[in-house]
Design goal:
single chain, alpha/beta, 5-stranded parallel β-sheet, 3-stranded parallel β-sheet, 13 helices, about 45% helix
């Protein structure tokens, strides 16, 4: 069994790698992220990429940082990498990598893709996001992509989808679904968060909900690590410990670059101007979560499920 935390969403790490490489720097993963990931007891991290160029850049940076990182696909791979003192990386291509060519998923699967997000708040060729004023559901192309993801056994990530698109996915998909970084709308009323009915639907598929650290999705005032635990516990009470995991989405390492991108979300009523919640300043702080969960209280076996086992089950 993997000994450590596996967030179901890594955040904009690839943007940081690309940015630093454009400045002529190499080994961004090792220089800027390795220590924080180890301090947070992170065993594996999904890296979300937005193009094939991003993939090639990531491959190059892993090579430059090869003493500390290794690409993996399964739990056994992650265990092997961890035994060598390395953080495992999981490939998570986004909808823009596929665009209007669903067959690209075949190549992405060969490259080791384990999960696929359908949207990023706004409308794309596959689906409408949760930020659209009059949001529709899946397009015909989106339906085709869902069916192909199922056939390739790539986990379908429903975070960011509009409510209508979410329910389209539930109707069409035949495999466990993942909400990689979505909190509880009942705890914090944000369109990026899930309703209780949506959470139950994900659990019914055998899927999992990763709780996000983004402050606007935690609480309307004074977001903190305690609110993060509140969202976890809401889902635990609602759907049980088999269907909850940790979904990070830190931007502390790249606020000056990522924050302007988020400002478009402010107008959509999704993101505020805060970028870090109290007690959740970066990956290193994830190490605090298991102890806080013990105080709620949760058993160690349930904490292991939430920390890594549930997500591993979903991608294996």
């Amino acid at each position: 069994m993997v000994d450590g935390i596996i967030p179901s969403y890594g955040g904009p790490v690839i943007s940081h790698v690309v940015f630093r490489r454009q400045l002529g720097e190499r080994g961004t993963l090792a220089r800027y992220h390795q220590n924080a990931l180890r301090q947070g007891h992170v065993a594996a991290l999904p890296i979300h990429v937005e193009s094939f160029d991003d993939i090639w850049t990531l491959l190059a940076d892993v090579e430059d940082s090869k003493s500390g990182f290794e690409f993996c696909e399964t739990g056994a791979d992650i265990q092997s990498a961890n035994a060598k003192g390395k953080v495992a990386l999981l490939l998570a291509p986004g909808y823009s990598v596929v665009a209007d060519r669903p067959e690209r998923l075949l190549g992405l699967r060969r490259l080791g893709a384990v999960m696929f997000p359908m949207s990023l708040n706004t409308r794309n060729l596959l689906a409408d996001g949760c930020g659209e004023r009059e949001a529709a559901g899946l397009s015909r192309l989106g339906i085709e992509v869902v069916q192909m993801l199922d056939s390739l056994k790539i986990a379908l990530d429903v975070s960011h989808l509009s409510d209508r698109a979410f329910w389209d996915v539930v109707e069409i998909s035949t495999r466990p679904l993942l909400a990689s970084h979505s909190n509880a709308r009942a705890v914090c009323d944000n369109p990026r968060n899930l309703t209780d009915d949506q959470a139950r639907a994900i659990a019914k598929t055998g899927g999992c909900i990763g709780v996000s650290v983004h402050p606007s999705m935690l609480a309307s005032e004074g977001p903190s690590i305690e609110h993060y635990i509140d969202h976890i516990m809401h889902f635990v009470r609602l759907v049980g410990t088999d269907h909850v995991c940790l979904g990070a989405d830190f931007i502390d390492f790249h606020v000056e670059f990522v924050a302007p991108k988020l400002q478009s979300g402010v107008a959509l009523g999704i993101y505020g101007n805060e970028h870090l919640a109290e007690g959740l300043s970066g990956f290193a702080d994830l190490s605090r979560v298991p102890e806080l969960l013990r105080g709620r209280p949760l058993a160690d076996t349930d904490i292991t499920k939430i920390s890594c086992a549930n997500f591993l089950r979903l991608i294996s």
